[in-house]
Specification:
The chain is an alpha+beta fold. It is built from three helices and four strands; from the N terminus they run ααββββα. The protein has helices at 8-21, 24-33, 93-107; strands spanning 34-40, 52-58, 61-66, 71-76. The chain is globular. The termini are far apart.
């Protein structure tokens, strides 16, 4: 089977599914940090698909969809539109958002 990158329409469905599962506090945070999905470069594994869809950011962290692993991930970034570290988590959106909030709480980012 040949791998194909996720389409923006398929990604929108994943995001909608995650939004429905969020607590009200997480949904409020999500609405503060989300942006229109945009392809961000990731040079270790992301070149073949033209990068990965970034969906939100908070300070120097980006939340993105890894369509190779079929899940949402968090990475730091130093340069806008460039994911610093490949993540292989297969998280649904609401769980990746919870992880980001925990990073913020514990690391005071």
């Amino acid at each position: 089977m040949i791998w194909e990158p996720i389409t923006s329409e398929e990604l929108s469905l994943e995001i909608s599914k995650g939004e429905k599962e969020m607590s009200s506090a997480n949904f409020q945070f999500w609405n503060e940090i989300k942006f229109t999905p945009t392809k961000w470069a990731e040079y270790e594994f992301g070149d073949e698909g033209g990068g990965f869809w970034a969906v939100a950011k908070y300070k120097n962290f980006v939340l993105y969809y890894n369509d190779i692993e079929e899940g949402f991930n968090i990475s730091e970034f130093e340069k806008e539109r460039e994911i610093k570290e490949y993540g292989a988590e297969q998280d649904e959106l609401q769980f990746a958002l919870i992880k980001l909030r925990k990073l913020i709480e514990y690391d005071k980012i």
